[in-house]
Amino acid sequence: LKQRGQRKHYLVLFPKIEWLSRYGIIYPNILQRLFRQFWPGNLTILLSDKKKYFSHLTFSNKIGIRIPESKLLRDFISYIEEPIVSTSINVSGEAPLKDLKQIIKEKGSWFDFGISDN
Length: 118
Hints:
five-stranded mixed β-sheet; globular
């Protein structure tokens, strides 16, 4: 769908930092300050997938991690009790779509459901 190269990472969304260790995601303690400053938010950080829980999504045992800015999305992830694999809604190299109506119109066949807090 995205026509992306195999070396392009997907990202995994978590509701809070404490979930990372549950899934074997390791990071140096020095990153705690960075996490607190930019999460929740749009910052994606590549971290080691030590337990290889996400090995089917990684390249060189690294996985893109984000704590999303949307409280609705964080609450949803907490409710389903599983992190969510995510990507932007666009063909690789094109600008991502941001308007929900346009996303449904142009890319509705790409997904089963969407969440919007707009």
